[in-house]
Specification:
- It contains 6 helices and no strands.
- By secondary structure, the chain is mostly helical.
- Helix 3 runs antiparallel to helix 5 and helix 5 packs across helix 6.
Length: 143
C-alpha cells in the first residue's frame, strides 16, 4: 500500500526511464525485453521509495537495503516474469483486455493472462530461490 501511494505519481517517469534504457540497449521494438526493463524500473522505483521510508531518509542505509540478496532476487524475478509473460502471451496470441469487448470476454482474457503469469512467476521464484540456496551452500562449504 505504501509503495503504491509513493510511486503512483511517478508512473510516467518510470515509463520514460524504461523507454530510454530500452533505446540505449537497442531493444526498442522487442516487446519481451521492453516488458522486462519496464518491470525492473518500476520495481526499483517502488523498492527505493520504501527503502528510503524504512530508513528514515538515510540514503546509505536505503542503498544497502536495495542491494540485499532478497531485493535482487525479487528484481530478477519481476524482470524474468515480465519478459516470459509477454513472450508467452504473444506466442499464444492471447488478446489484450479491450474496452470494446464484453465484460465476460475481458474476464476470460484476464483469467488466461493471470494463469500464465502465475505459472511463470512460481517457476521464476522457485528458480531464483533454489539458485540462491545452492549458492549459499556452496559458499559455506555445505553443498
Amino acid at each position: 500500500m505504501l509503495a503504491a501511494a509513493v510511486t503512483g505519481p511517478v508512473t510516467g517517469v518510470a515509463s520514460n526511464i524504461s523507454g530510454g534504457v530500452s533505446a540505449g540497449l537497442g531493444v526498442t521494438g522487442n516487446a519481451a525485453m521492453e516488458s522486462a526493463i519496464s518491470a525492473g524500473v518500476r520495481s526499483l522505483i517502488g523498492k527505493s521509495s520504501v527503502a528510503l521510508v524504512n530508513n528514515q531518509g538515510d540514503l546509505g542505509a536505503a542503498l544497502e537495503e536495495l542491494g540485499s540478496s532478497s531485493n535482487l532476487r525479487s528484481l530478477a524475478t519481476n524482470m524474468v516474469t515480465a519478459r516470459l509473460v509477454t513472450q508467452a502471451t504473444n506466442t499464444l496470441e492471447v488478446p489484450k483486455i479491450s474496452p470494446g469487448a464484453s465484460v465476460a470476454e475481458n474476464m476470460a482474457v484476464a483469467a488466461r493472462r493471470g494463469v500464465i503469469e502465475a505459472s511463470i512467476r512460481v517457476g521464476a521464484e522457485a528458480a531464483f530461490g533454489a539458485g540462491a540456496e545452492l549458492l549459499g551452500r556452496s559458499r559455506c562449504g555445505r553443498g
